[in-house]
What we know:
Elements: E1 2-7, H1 12-26, E2 31-36, H2 39-47, E3 54-57, H3 66-76, E4 81-86, H4 92-95, E5 102-105, H5 109-128, E6 131-136, E7 139-144, E8 148-154, E9 157-162, E10 166-170, H6 174-181, E11 186-190, E12 193-196, E13 202-204, E14 207-209, E15 215-217, H7 223-237
Parallel strand pairs: 1-2, 1-3, 3-4, 4-5
Antiparallel strand pairs: 6-7, 8-9, 8-12, 9-10, 11-12, 13-14, 14-15
Helix pairs in contact: 1-5, 2-3
Amino acid sequence: MLRVAICDDEKILMEIEEIAGRFFRLNCIDNKITIYQSSENLQYDLQDGIVYDLFLLDIEMPGIHGMELAKEICERIPSAKIIFITSHPEYAITAYEYSVFRYIQKTMLHEKLFLALEDYYKLYALEKKEYYMIEIKNYLEKIPYRSIFYILKEGKYSVMYLEGERTVSVRKPLKQVFEELGQEYFYFADRGCIINLANVVGMDTGKILFPEQQNVTINKTNWIEFKESLLSFWGKQI
Length: 238
């Protein structure tokens, strides 16, 4: 789960949350956004050991200055990234001393923030290895998790059904592939099928529906349990 903290003392806070939430929903990214209207409260949580992956911060705030927060974040959570959203461009050069990922002026919020989040998530996914590595003799490929619709057991192989109507086979038991994926949005539907919940668009008379008119059928005994898991996953994306 991607953990995000947003800290701003102005009305624009809700706009920042809306843009970030829309980005995560459109990309089916499991996330938790925490809102802070006080820089002191964020600092208290940092000192209590609460960790975030991404911070969206203002600079000029009452109490703890945004630059001071950035310094503390770098010291406590070196892997975290910071996006400054501010009305004060004069801090831009200093901000990059703290490895700030982006510096966005509030007047450009709607034009720049969504793109900044796209760039950030590409880096985050790379660092978190959001892909499955296929290595067969002289063949090597990274399969992004987002491109996997479902995986079926076919004899001694696990066959991945991907976007673009591609398939890729690996000579591994399905259970081993599931453990290697290690992501909560992959669901072991039955002994012969793994479903990527992030790519499911619906269910209809025994079939699980995906984009590009792809679908797969699972055992009826697992239907209700799968439906509950899917609804729970969708609920987290709202």
